[in-house]
């Protein structure tokens, strides 16, 4: 990654000259594994570890802050896998067939 740095030189007659140069920047983003999991559309944690290790995606940080979560539980992932809402009322039973 790189950044463009601008500086200005102001002369005695108040004329300003804009200077610029491209410098390499050390990545300073601090992101946790949970944040990366959420930002990459809830990609499974083992897949994220593989992507980081292989540097498969340009712009992905080389180091992720914090430890890998001990459990791979994500409430949003579980809720996304539900096929229907849970039953909130008890089922009604009849005394006669086909009633």
Keywords:
99 residues, alpha+beta, 3 helices, 2 strands, 18% strand
Q: Could you walk me through the main structural features you see in this protein, from its secondary elements to its overall organization?
A:
Strands 1-2 form a two-stranded antiparallel ribbon. It is elongated and about 100 Å long. The chain is built from 3 helices and 2 strands. The termini are far apart. 23% of the residues lie in helices and 18% in strands. By secondary structure, it is an alpha+beta fold. The mean pLDDT is 77. The chain has one domain.
Tell me the layout of helices and strands.
Blueprint: E1 2-10, E2 16-24, H1 33-39, H2 45-54, H3 75-80
Antiparallel strand pairs: 1-2
Counted by DSSP, the helix tally is 3
Q: Approximately what portion of the residues adopt beta-strand conformation?
A: 15-25%
End-to-end C-alpha gap? 70 Å
Structural class: alpha+beta
Any idea what the shape is? elongated
- Tally the beta strands: 2
| Biggest sheet: strand arrangement | 1-2
Percent of residues in helices: 10-25%
Order of helices and strands: EEHHH
Task: Please give the domain count.
Answer: 1
Low-confidence stretches: none
Q: How much is the average pLDDT?
A: 77
Q: What's the gyration radius in Å?
A: 27 Å
**What does the main sheet amount to?**
2 strands, antiparallel
Summarize the structure.
The protein is an alpha+beta fold and 99 residues long. The protein has 3 helices and 2 strands. It has one domain.
């Amino acid at each position: 990654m790189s950044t463009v740095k601008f500086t200005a030189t102001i002369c005695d007659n108040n004329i300003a000259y804009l200077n610029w140069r491209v410098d390499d920047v050390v990545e300073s983003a601090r992101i946790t594994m949970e944040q990366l999991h959420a930002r990459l559309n809830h990609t499974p944690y083992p897949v994220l570890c593989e992507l980081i290790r292989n540097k498969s995606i340009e712009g992905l940080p080389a180091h992720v802050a914090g430890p890998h979560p001990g459990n791979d539980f994500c409430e949003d992932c579980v809720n996304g896998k539900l096929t229907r809402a849970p039953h909130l009322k008890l089922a009604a039973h009849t005394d006669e067939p086909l009633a």
